[in-house]
Structures are given as structure tokens and as C-alpha cells.
Structure prediction request, 163 residues.
Amino acid sequence: MEPKEPAADSGPPEEGAHGGASPDPARDRERRDAPREGPPPGARRQDPLERSLHAARALILADLEASDVAHADIVSLVEEAVSHRRWWVGEWPEGAAFVDGLVAQDVQDALLERYGRWPVCPVCVGSDPHALDVEPELGEEPHWVCAATSTVVARVGSLGSKP
Prediction:
């Protein structure tokens, strides 16, 4: 059997082909650094339920930061609440719109059991300290509300800013 001749003018080998790189490093760099459109290869689009859970996590973490209590052990409570609600919203997908308020309430309950009231009402300064409530309890666009005065303090995720 006679040896085969390489194909004439087959072009430069692709990067990684036959163990070699392209003879044009500038072109390789351009190809590597060129902006990609869309998600990276192999990335999956995040489903709407996961997006709602991530948004709820971010809102509660913002409120914890605003209250200066976003310590690691408390952030773990947020993760537990989100995990619990992942199952819940998986069973009732229409409830995704209510996840912000529910996660806020879950974290508030967990904090009460372990640390005390949160968030403490900034409206009733000088009286017995009490926590804000989430209203509506099961609804969209939840807010932190002082139950004693019926004052809306802030939207969930916006403590420290005006309502």
C-alpha cells in the first residue's frame, strides 16, 4: 500500500486539531475574545420559578443588609426559606408571584425563634419595640407595615429607603 499524500491546500488546522494551534495567533485571539451572543454554550435558561426564588432571596438579603443583620448564620436562614419555598412553588407554580412575601415571613419567623424581632418598627420609636408585618400575607407586591399605626414602611426589599 502506498502512503497517502496530504490534501492540497486544506487550510490551516483548527485550534486543537491534530494537537496544533493555528499559525495566526492574532486571529486566534480575535476569535477567543470576540463577544458572544446569547448564553454561553451549554448554559440552560433559568426557569421562571427559579427566577422568582432568586429575586425573593435578593430582596430579603437587601432588607437584612439595610438592617445591618446579614450575618452568615442569618443568610443561612434565607437559604433554608428559599429551599422550602422551592418545593412549595414547584407544587403550586401560580404562587410564584407570592414568593417575595412568603420568604420574608419565613425568615422573620426563623429570626424570631432564634434571635428576636426583625425588622424592628422604625415608626414607633420610644414605645415597646415590635416587628413590622408583611402585607398582604399572601399576595403580590408585599410591603413591610407597622401593624400598630397601619403605616407602610417600605416594600419588601427596600428597607432603609422610602416606600
Observations:
- Confidence is low (pLDDT under 50) at residues 2-22.
- The first strand starts at residue 133 and ends at 135.
- The radius of gyration is 27 Å.
- Helices lie at 25-33, 48-66, 72-91, 99-114.
